[in-house]
Amino acid sequence: MARLFVDADACPVKEECERVAVRHRVRMIVVSNGGIRPSANPLVESVFVASGPDEADKWIAEQAGPGDVVVTGDIPLAAKVIAGGAVVVKYNGEVLTDRNIGNVLATRDLMADLRSADPFRQGGGRPFSKADRSRFLEALERVMRGAAAGG
């Protein structure tokens, strides 16, 4: 049976993940460095890893496997879990699979190169919106239905 892993540090959609996990009666594993209140829901397990760079990512990459769904905005983590057979849903609802992760990684690397070439470039991405939340819920629901059906 599929599991839902949530890379919870800085994740804006934890509540939405729990709603979908409960609806599908799927075990949800929330992984963080701490500072996140554990859910009282018996389907939700909190895993607290050591503080340090990428500790939650390492744990998720070691645990997630075929049929699992991972919620993350971290592209290198996405590539690792996809290589292990999982499907990724980004916070904005973009679904990452073995068919598109190569292009996503290449774009990420290109953007990092462009940012490093312009030290005066300011700002980050746009704020997380209600439309992003809605797209995320729709994508996670679709992916979970597929995982439950074995595909």
Automatic annotation (TrEMBL):
Spell out the Pfam families in the cross-references: DUF188 (PF02639)
Ranges in a coiled coil: none
InterPro entries listed in its UniProt record: UPF0178 (IPR003791)
Family, according to the entry, reads as follows: Belongs to the UPF0178 family.
Report the protein name in the record: UPF0178 protein GU920_16960
- Give the originating organism: Paragemmobacter ruber
